[in-house]
Every structure is written in C-alpha cells, then in structure tokens.
C-alpha cells in the first residue's frame, strides 16, 4: 500500500502544505522516517513529548493497562483505578482549592468544559478573553480565541465574548459583575510566545475577585514543567479557579483535564444530572500513561532541565538577525526579521534534520520547544546548526 498516496488522497487535510514526514518510529528526542532519515524533534510534537518519544515508564504503564482493561463505561460511572490514582496524584501537586479533576481527551475539550462549568456555576454567560490567545478549534474554544482570521469563517460563535489586549491594564473594567469567567494562557503560545507580566496577571486576578468572575488558566501548552515550574501559574503566584490541561499530560497519549474546586464542580451534578458527560474522557490507558508521566516528572528535576534549556538556547543563538528570543524555560520563540527569513530558516533546518515550526498567530517566530529530556550535547549541536542557518540565510 502506498501510504503517502493514501494520506494525500483519503486523510482530511488541514492545509495545502503539510510537512508530510512519513513516520516509521520515534524515540527520545528523535523521529525516524520510513526513508531512514532521522530528525531531532525540536518542537516536541507541539509541546507534547516533554519526556521524549516513547519514554520507557510511559510505555510500560500503557502496556500494563492494555493487559488489564480498555474502555469499560462512559466517564463518571465506574471506579477505575488509573483515573482515581491519577486524580489523587495530580491534585496533590496543586493548591487546595484545585481538588477535583474532570478528565477529557484534548485541550479544546478541556476549555469547552471549563467554559460550561463557569457558566453553570456563576449563572452568567459573558466571557472575557485576550487578543492573540488560542484555546482550540471547537466552537466554544474558538469563540474565545483572539484572532479574527480563524473566527470569521465560523461566525456566529458564542455571544458576549469580549477581547482585551494581553498585558494591558486598559479596559480591565470590562471584567464585571456579569462576567462568568476570564479565560487566558499565562504565557500565550500560538500568539507568539508572550509571557504575561506578573503584576498585570495579579491585577486580572484581583479584578476577577472583585466582581465574582472565575479565572480560567489554559495551561495546555505551559503545563508539566515546560516553563520551569510544574505549572506556569506557580511561578506567577496567581491561582486560577479552573486549570485546563492537555498536551504533555498524557506523555504522548490523548489526555486532557480541567481542574477546579469540589464546590464549583457541584453545579455539574444537578439540574439536570449528567449535564456534562463524555464517553472516552479519562480513558484508562491515557490515565495510566499520565500517571507514569507525572511520576517521572516529579522524580527528577525537570524544572531545572527546562531552565537549563533556556540558558543554553540564549547562549547559542547569537546570530545578528535574531530580533528577540522570547519565552520561559523550554517554551521559547525566536523572532526573526521577516516572514521570508523565518520560512527559509525553518525549511533549511528541516533539510538538515531539525524539526522547527511557526506558531499559529505569528509567521515571524520560530518555535523552540525541545523535549525536556534532550541531552545538552544534542541541544547545543542542533542550536549551532540553527544559528548557522539563520546567519547564512540573512546575508
Ligand atoms: N490551548 C492552548 C494554549 C493550545 O496551545 C492548544 C493547542 O495548541 C489548545 C488549547 C488546543 O488543544 P488541542 O489541540 O488538544 O485541542
């Protein structure tokens, strides 16, 4: 069978220029193609493979769970050990008010759930979100995504969504007594790796407290040590009312969650019961993988690894035409002079076996988000190749 032909003919496409790598296998920081070429995965499958590909602890947990049971019942009915164990482990790492986990299958689904929970708990339906924020592509998440080019083809979306500028104190009074929640990424990922300023984030939290609006942190990209702390909010010392997670959570398995207080979650139990359910949320194999992932993350100093990655990136990438290196820990972006140069650099690196990428809302930014397990030698040699490419292509 010609897999390449079937991919282009029968698999629904998301653009007219997919990367088109035909994958044979992946291991650690590497992806291997059917043609026998190896690539350094410098974007971790977009902030997923923080432990690298096929981490032995994750693979072992998946295999063991596959031998016990797969799906047995829709979410919320049966007591399944992998779910309960993971919920306990995850909440043990969170502030006391984030004591309950609702499991889903993806990032966008976590945000959908968070929006519904905020509506049901507050009895309000207004949301405040931020320009250039990205929360996923299902209708609710798209409604709070701050980029018209993605929203316009799908209008009308949810009503009463108000977009503010990220890191701006102007119009914070838009967050008012009618607001169900503010949804935001503490560090905007697809918007171009833009960290929130600490003082500003605290002002947003205070404003939410004043008016009784919930604060939702979408940590789908920033979570699980990508930015140096287990979750970015811990570094900001601002606790959200609802925390949305996915991506690196499952160690390569599909997994997401929104976490909040028992009190908030009560509104999902009544009027009517079963008002928010999912068939596959908290799939036992994904939960087993997530448990192994978090256990591994907690057993070593992954926060330090992320911080070291940042230092090495800043040390090695010195080409003159780099306008700025933005971000925190292993969630970094290189701002280059223009779109053409950015495209050429990404393509030239790809030719040399390095996978880089853009972010969704910026075409002058090269995303750098290697697996946290990457060895320093490989990290440095890859960065040197990237730096040389930038230097050569800017001349
Ligand atoms: N939120 C953020 C911050 C993201 O970066 C993404 C995906 O890139 C999502 C939500 C959507 O996640 P998913 O693709 O798993 O639906």
What name is given to the CATH topology of the largest domain? Aspartate Aminotransferase, domain 2
Strand order of the largest sheet: 4-12-11-10-7-5-6
Instruction: Please tell me what the overall shape is.
Output: globular
* Small-molecule binders: pyridoxal-5'-phosphate
Mean pLDDT: 97
Number of helices: 14
Give the percentage of residues in beta strands.
15-25%
The CATH architecture of the largest domain comes to: 3-Layer(aba) Sandwich
- The tally of strands reads 17
Rg over CA atoms, rounded to whole Å, is: 21 Å
CATH-wise, what's the superfamily of the largest domain? Type I PLP-dependent aspartate aminotransferase-like (Major domain)
Helix content: 25-40%
Task: Explain the overall architecture.
The protein has 395 residues and is of the alpha/beta class. It folds into two domains: 146 residues, Alpha-Beta Complex (Aspartate Aminotransferase, domain 1); 243 residues, Type I PLP-dependent aspartate aminotransferase-like (Major domain) (Aspartate Aminotransferase, domain 2, 3-Layer(aba) Sandwich). It is built from 14 helices and 17 strands. Strands 4-12-11-10-7-5-6 form a seven-stranded mixed sheet, with helices on both faces. Helix 4 runs parallel beside helix 11. The protein starts with a helix and ends with a helix. Pyridoxal-5'-phosphate (PLP) binds next to helix 5. The site of pyridoxal-5'-phosphate has 15 residues, from helix 5.
């Amino acid at each position: 069978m010609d897999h390449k032909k079937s991919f282009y003919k029968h698999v629904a496409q998301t653009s007219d220029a997919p990367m088109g790598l035909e994958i044979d296998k992946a291991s650690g920081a590497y992806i291997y193609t059917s043609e026998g070429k190896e690539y350094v995965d410098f974007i971790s499958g977009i902030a997923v493979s923080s432990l690298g590909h096929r981490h032995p602890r994750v693979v072992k947990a998946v295999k063991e769970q596959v031998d016990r049971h797969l799906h047995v019942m829709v979410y919320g009915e049966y007591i399944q050990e992998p779910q309960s164990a993971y919920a306990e482990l995850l909440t043990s790492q969170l502030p006391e008010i984030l004591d309950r986990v609702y499991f889903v299958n993806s990032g966008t689904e976590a945000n959908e759930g968070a929006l519904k929970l905020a509506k049901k708990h507050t009895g309000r339906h207004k949301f405040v979100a931020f320009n250039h924020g990205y929360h996923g592509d299902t209708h609710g998440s798209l409604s709070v995504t701050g980029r018209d080019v993605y929203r316009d083809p799908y209008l009308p979306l949810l009503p009463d969504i108000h977009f503010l500028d990220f890191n701006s104190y102007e119009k914070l009074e838009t967050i008012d007594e009618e607001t169900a929640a503010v949804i935001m990424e503490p560090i905007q990922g697809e918007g171009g790796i833009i960290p929130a300023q600490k003082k500003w984030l605290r002002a947003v939290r205070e404003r939410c407290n004043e008016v009784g609006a919930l604060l939702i942190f979408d940590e789908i990209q920033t979570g699980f040590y990508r930015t140096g702390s287990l979750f970015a909010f811990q570094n900001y010392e601002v606790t959200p009312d609802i925390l949305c997670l996915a991506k690196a959570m499952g160690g390569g398995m599909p997994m997401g969650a929104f976490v909040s207080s028992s009190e908030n979650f009560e509104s999902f139990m009544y009027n009517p019961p079963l008002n928010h359910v999912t068939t596959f949320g908290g799939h036992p194999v994904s939960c087993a993988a997530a448990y192994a992932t978090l256990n591994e993350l907690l057993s070593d100093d992954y926060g330090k690894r992320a911080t070291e990655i940042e230092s090495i990136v800043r040390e090695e990438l010195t080409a003159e035409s780099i306008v700025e290196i933005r971000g925190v820990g292993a969630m970094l972006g290189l701002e280059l002079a223009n779109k053409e140069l950015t495209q050429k650099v990404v393509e030239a690196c790809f030719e040399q076996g390095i996978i880089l990428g853009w972010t969704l809302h910026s075409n002058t930014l090269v995303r750098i988000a290697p697996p946290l397990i990457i060895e320093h030698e490989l990290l440095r040699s890859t960065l040197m190749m990237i730096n040389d490419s930038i230097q050569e292509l800017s001349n």
